[in-house]
Write a structure and sequence with these properties.
heterodimer; A: 5 domains; six-stranded antiparallel β-sheet; globular; B: alpha+beta; 2 domains; Ribosomal_Su5_D2-typ_SF (chain B); cytoplasm (chain B)
Chain lengths: ~950, ~280
């Protein structure tokens, strides 16, 4: 009988074949997994010193070989005094990634065992490690020790997997050592292979087995910039060896993972994302599916070490502990001074209490890098090099103070620094973290810009080489092919003869869109929108495409643009610059005199823009009756049609919403801000906007028709009526106006009726407030929603997508590809067929979009602060919100709002009475006469700048000068 | 006096005369079996365990007459249900005979009934905390049915597979959803050596005063009665007559069958257990 079995005995003899068996538990199921391993002897060590591996090397199936990575002249330092390669173990990667990313560390061997462990423990760290290896600059090499027969280690009976892996690491180091010794024995050189670990046991075992090994701290201490590097070592690692729990435990212990999973499944516990209130650092909330309202988490003990953004599991507290959300502003600063933070701060007010809960465990930490500055009170006055504890105050108020151990306290003071959180022990009031790097002095432009990019998670590093390699070889010399036989011209319409022009903001370099219009023989108009053909250059599944999809959008800051695509494409090859031929994706309509679309045609094309106008130039040209050339006539036609289209849209119920937009004038040389102005809207702005909307709607219809399951669309949900309740009652009480919200049409009409003859800005103010009641629009994949849900509420369109700005938005790139496939220009890439994949893309770009907006806003906020620095300006403002103890004033000129507290009105807090029904506040003046201020009232305020102590941000501060023309101060 | 040929049981190629001769030689004292085995001796067989790496336990056995059987045991963690079947459903046995319809429940029944002997303690070992249990699937594949009755082959292979079956070690609390140790080496045996082993069923045929273990097709054809004796540990837990006997049997003979079965079974257990050790 031939045996079915591959016995262990066989594999011991040949050692080319082995298998491993392990169990995997997931979702209560347990699977036995058997892996067969084919061990090899030809995996190279990749050291340039080793001639044997070099000679042995075999290519892949195409015969390609990889160049050797590890230098023949590796670094030396004071701890390891001979040239050496470093082999860190898993913990080093998990806790000291920042150190390893430092330029001083080179020639590192990453064992496959370690890489696998890192992947299992933390995907983000794994990706960072992968990126380090891929960059090639620092000579990191992944050695597949699990597949090389000499370094493969079988798990011993009763051995834990961690011990086995540690042994595999030691075996790998040992092998490297022997292998390299053999390789260089004739050259007279010496080389060491050093295992770097933090695990005492592992280090001791290594020593006894004759492996050169070293503690990470000792290793780093021997390097030149040891202070900086030592600070980058995670605090969690330091604790590992000295886990003597000192002091009282402040927080209750987390449940075990299996207990939490059981509880969540059984419905006794709830899982969700932890959100901290921006006004009260002791009030968190979590939205869980089983409750309509978010669960409140009040007080430090209940928050139990959760940080904003974490996925946590909570237990609902008994009903007698349910509370109302607090109405006060509670800041960490004031509370820690009084040192009374453990009392839960829920206000026991009247009204219906909300359910409260306590965090019993964390499923997934959502820790990222945090930017902040050192707490001045924690930095000692004396300068010294010894290590000390300091506190970092993050810029984001929702993040608690972070404790750092640093040797550079005095250097770092007054700087914007980046830190990362490592752990939050039960005995520690604050999480502990480690220093990553310094961005520069607080309030310098560079540091603040980088800080806000980091805070909003904007990818701002230069494009990696792999991405730049995807660019056309010709670079700026790239030209539209002139030979009509060229395959790139296949199915491409030649629109070079059309009188196309572009209209953009002044100084715009990435011109996405261009337009043309002409009269047709039948009396109708031919109107074309031509969009930069980005997808001609950015093919799916390339490094450039991946990068763009991760970045999601171009981010515009006041003085800076963070591109989604490399400059060469964005501002040159794709940009529809005037006087040169460019590839475009064109939408051509036949439109009647009344603005009815008769037919629509999509095609890839070649165009030649005749002129690039700014909105202002275009307006002047249209208004100048002496200009009668065809191009100007075309623009007049466009303007005429756009007005009709706009009217139709308005009739259908599109909303004209306002958001305060300001423009910052900067000095041309230094780009320092000088002044702030509100942006002007011209007719030409809405000309371009109308046709872009029309193009987007046409494309949305087409791609949905072609790909009903996977079209990339954009929707804007109707806001729930409850969101408008407050605004409705405010309008009713103060002005006797009604706001109807049953449809977007009704809302648009009633918004038009909201006028105050005495207050020309009133209408805009109401629109700004109404905008805040809306939901935000989002990208989605058509298969995930029912057709009625596709509706874009604000634009009153049944279906909508983004097509017109592929240079700066990734959604448009996807729409371009889908449209190209829908018109059978090219086959659709398989990734665009996958609903799951598209959903991932949508999730990411929605998130990136929001972050980009927030980053842009923070940038404006910073610049407004800078522009007003040292100035005191009296400016008109309007009361936007009113509280019992303060007012929020909106100043349209700067697009900012500021809080004025009643107690700040006079040196002694004046008496005040608040009428909540009428939204008015009565205040006793200095002379004893009472005056009143109501919602939406026009006021004059003094605007000045002020540095916020908590975040170190320069912000606007306001004081009240007069109300409705009556002086109050 | 030649016994009448049993119809469906075993259509031996022997003539009535040859059958009569066989019957006579088996009734002698001491009896003479055609292959000169002693009454309690088994035909040579080949057995190996742990042949399917991805199962929780497995075995394969080849009988001297060409019968071949593979058994794989898989275990899955399952939520306790309130259904009336209760713990009876925790072990599911499925027999597939190649080349035959799979709705022949009989063979499976033989094995299953004996596996669920009360008091053997198996079911207790399948409990996982308060709300879960292991569900064990025993898949028996009869590659080539033996010429004689398959019961012995099936149960011996199943025995071997079950003795080699390991259940992942649970590391969670009783009230929680189960979580298991990732080391297969730490898995616990379904039948620890100090506990009652899984049962086996032996086929015994009696001819006159004599009884024979592991009867061949020819011996079955001339037997007075054919008994399937299930033995669990040191006890006989079931005796069942199979169709095809040609006569009656005395009470003394049954007593001897039971007594000798226990002795034979012990030897069988011993030799099968030594298979595991290799």
């Amino acid at each position: 009988m031939t045996s079915f079995k591959r016995s262990h005995a066989d594999s011991r003899v040949s050692s080319e074949l082995s298998s491993k068996v392990f169990l995997r538990t997931s979702k209560g199921k347990c699977t036995k997994i058997v892996r067969e391993l084919y061990l090899r002897r030809d995996i190279p060590c990749s050291s340039k010193l080793c001639a044997r591996c070099m000679a042995d090397i075999k290519g892949d199936s195409y015969g390609r070989t990889r160049p050797f990575v590890l230098s023949s002249d590796p670094p030396v330092n004071d701890t390891i005094r001979e040239p050496h390669y470093m082999v860190p173990d898993t913990n080093i990667f998990l806790h000291c990634m920042d150190v390893l990313e430092h330029a001083a560390i080179t020639d590192v061997i990453i064992l496959q065992t370690v890489l696998d462990e890192v992947r299992a423990r933390s995907l983000p760290l794994y990706n960072r490690l992968r990126a380090l290896v891929a960059s090639g600059e620092k000579r990191f090499y992944v050695f597949h020790n699990e597949f090389r027969s000499e370094t493969y280690v079988r798990r011993e009976p009763g051995e834990t997997i961690n011990d086995r892996n540690d042994r595999a690491v030691r075996r790998g180091v040992q092998w490297y050592h022997e292998h390299l010794k053999e390789a260089i024995k004739d050259s007279g050189k010496s080389i060491a292979v050093v295992m770097v670990s933090n695990d005492k046991g592992n280090l001791e075992k290594g020593k006894s087995e004759g492996v050169t090994c070293c503690n990470i701290k000792d290793y780093v201490s021997g390097m030149k910039n040891s202070d900086e590097l030592l600070d980058m070592i995670s605090a969690a690692l330091g604790d590992e060896n000295a886990k003597a729990a000192k002091g009282d435990t402040l927080y209750s212990e987390y449940y075990s993972m299996s207990k939490m999973m059981t509880g969540v499944k059984a419905g006794t516990l709830h899982q969700g994302k932890f959100n901290l209130s921006p006004y009260n650092f002791l009030e968190g909330s979590i939205h869980v599916p089983s409750f309509d309202k978010p669960l409140l988490i009040l007080g430090r003990e209940n928050i139990n070490r959760s940080v904003h953004g974490d996925q946590v599991v909570v237990r609902v507290l008994p009903k007698d502990q349910w509370k109302q959300p607090s109405t006060k502003i509670v800041e960490e600063e004031t509370l820690t001074k009084n040192d009374n933070p453990d009392v839960s701060q829920g206000a026991a007010g009247e009204g219906k209490p909300q359910p409260t809960a306590r965090v019993v465990g964390v499923i997934k930490r959502n820790w990222r890098y945090y930017v902040g500055h050192l707490d001045p009170s924690s930095v000692p006055a004396v300068d010294g090099k010894s290590q000390r504890n300091v506190f970092l105050i993050p810029m984001d108020k929702k993040i608690p103070k972070i404790r750092l151990r640093t040797r550079q306290a005095s250097e770092l003071f007054g700087k914007r620094i980046v830190v990362s959180i490592d752990a939050w022990e039960r005995t520690s009031r604050y999480p502990s973290g480690h220093f990553v790097r310094s961005l520069g002095e607080v309030e310098t432009k560079e540091a603040e810009t980088e800080a806000l990019l980091l805070e909003w998670d904007v990818q701002y590093r230069p494009f990696p080489k792999a991405v730049l390699d995807c660019l056309p070889k010709e670079g700026h010399e790239w030209r539209v092919p002139q030979n009509p036989e060229d395959p790139r011209l296949h199915q491409r319409a030649d629109y070079r003869g059309l009188l196309v022009c572009s209209i953009d903001p002044p100084g715009c370099q990435d011109i996405d869109d261009a337009l043309h219009a002409s009269r047709m023989p039948n009396g109708n108009y031919e109107v074309g929108v031509h969009i930069a053909d980005v997808t001609h250059f950015v093919k799916p599944n390339t490094a450039m495409d991946d990068e763009a999809s991760v970045r999601g959008t171009t981010v515009y800051l006041v003085d800076k643009r963070i591109d989604m695509l490399p400059m060469l494409l964005g501002t040159d090859l794709c940009s529809l610059k005037p006087y040169v031929e460019r590839f475009a994706f064109s939408v051509i309509w036949e439109i009647t005199e009344d603005g009815e679309v008769v037919s629509t045609k999509f095609s890839k094309s070649i165009i030649k823009s005749r002129e690039a106008f700014s909105y202002e130039q275009a307006q002047i040209r249209i208004d100048d009756q002496s200009q009668t050339d065809e191009l100007t006539q075309g623009m007049r036609t466009l303007l005429m049609l756009s007005k009709k289209l706009r009217q139709k849209r308005m009739d259908a119920g599109a909303l004209n919403l306002a958001s305060p937009e300001v423009k910052i004038e900067t000095e041309s040389e230094t780009s320092d801000p000088i002044d702030v102005k509100t942006k002007k809207m011209l007719e030409t702005n809405s000309l371009v906007e109308e046709f872009m909307l029309l193009a987007n709607i046409s494309v949305a219809g087409k791609i949905y028709e072609a790909f009903p399951q996977t079209a990339m669309l954009r929707r804007h949900g109707a806001p729930p009526a409850s969101k408008f309740e407050e605004l409705q009652s405010q309008l009713n009480a103060t002005r006797g106006l009604t706001l109807r919200t049953e449809s977007s049409k009704a809302l648009a009409d009633s918004l038009d009726e909201c006028v105050d003859p005495a207050n020309s800005f009133f209408n805009t103010l109401v629109r700004i407030l109404a905008t805040r009641c809306m939901l935000s629009a989002e990208y989605f994949c058509s298969g995930t929603q029912a057709y009625p849900e596709f509706r874009h509420y604000g634009l009153a369109s049944e279906i909508y997508t983004h097509f017109t700005s592929p240079i700066r938005r990734y959604a448009d790139v996807v729409a371009h590809r889908q449209l190209a496939a829908a018109i059978e220009y090219e086959a659709l890439h398989p990734t665009l067929h996958s609903k799951a994949k598209l959903e991932g893309v949508c999730g990411n770009i929605n998130n990136r979009h929001r972050n980009a907006q927030m980053a842009g806003r923070s940038s404006v906020e910073y610049y407004v602060g800078q522009a007003l620095r040292g100035k005191v300006i009296e400016e008109e403002g309007y009361i936007m919100r009113i509280f019992s103890n303060g007012l929020v004033v909106f100043v349209p000129r700067f697009g900012v709002e500021g809080l004025i507290r009643v107690k700040d009105l006079a040196t002694v807090e004046p008496k005040s009475e608040y009428d909540a029904e009428k939204y008015t506040l009565m205040i006793e003046g200095a002379t004893g006469a009472w005056w009143s201020v109501g919602l939406f009232d026009k006021v004059v305020v003094k605007v000045m700048d002020d540095v916020e102590a908590h975040t170190g941000k320069r912000k606007i501060k306001m004081t009240l000068v007069s109300v409705k023309g009556l002086k109050v101060a | 006096m030649a016994p009448i040929q049993a119809s469906q049981q075993t259509s031996t190629p022997l003539s009535p005369v040859e059958l009569s001769y066989l019957h006579t030689s088996l009734t002698l004292t001491p009896p003479i079996r055609p292959d000169s085995r002693s009454p309690t001796q088994f035909r040579p067989l080949i057995a190996e365990s742990d042949i399917l790496p991805s199962t929780n336990g497995s075995a394969r056995m080849i009988w001297g007459d060409g019968g071949e059987c593979i058994v794989g045991v898989k275990a899955e963690a399952e939520k306790n249900s309130a259904a009336p079947g209760g713990s009876k459903d925790w072990i599911e046995i499925n027999v597939e005979v190649s080349g035959q319809r799979d709705d022949d429940a009989f063979l499976g029944m033989t094995v299953a009934e004996s596996l669920l002997v009360p008091g053997s303690g198996v079911l207790e070992r399948l409990v996982l905390g308060e709300r879960f249990h292991w569900k064990v699937f025993v898949d028996i594949l009869l590659l080539t049915p033996p010429l004689s009755h398959p019961a012995t082959l099936l149960t011996l292979t199943t025995y071997l597979a079950l003795r080699n079956t390991f259940l992942p070690k649970s590391v969670s609390e009783v009230a929680e959803d189960p979580v298991f140790d990732d080391d297969w080496g730490n898995a616990l045996p379904l039948y620890p050596t100090d506990k009652i082993p899984p049962p086996i069923t032996l086929l015994v045929v009696s001819v006159g005063e004599n009884i024979f273990f592991d009867p061949t097709r020819e011996e079955l054809a001339v037997g007075d009665i054919i008994l399937a004796v299930s033995i669990c540990g040191k006890k006989v837990v079931g005796v069942r007559t199979l169709e095809g006997g040609n006569g009656g049997v005395g009470r003394a003979v049954i007593k001897r069958v039971i007594k000798e079965s226990c002795q034979v079974a012990e030897e069988v257990f011993g030799s099968l257990n030594s298979v595991e050790e290799n």
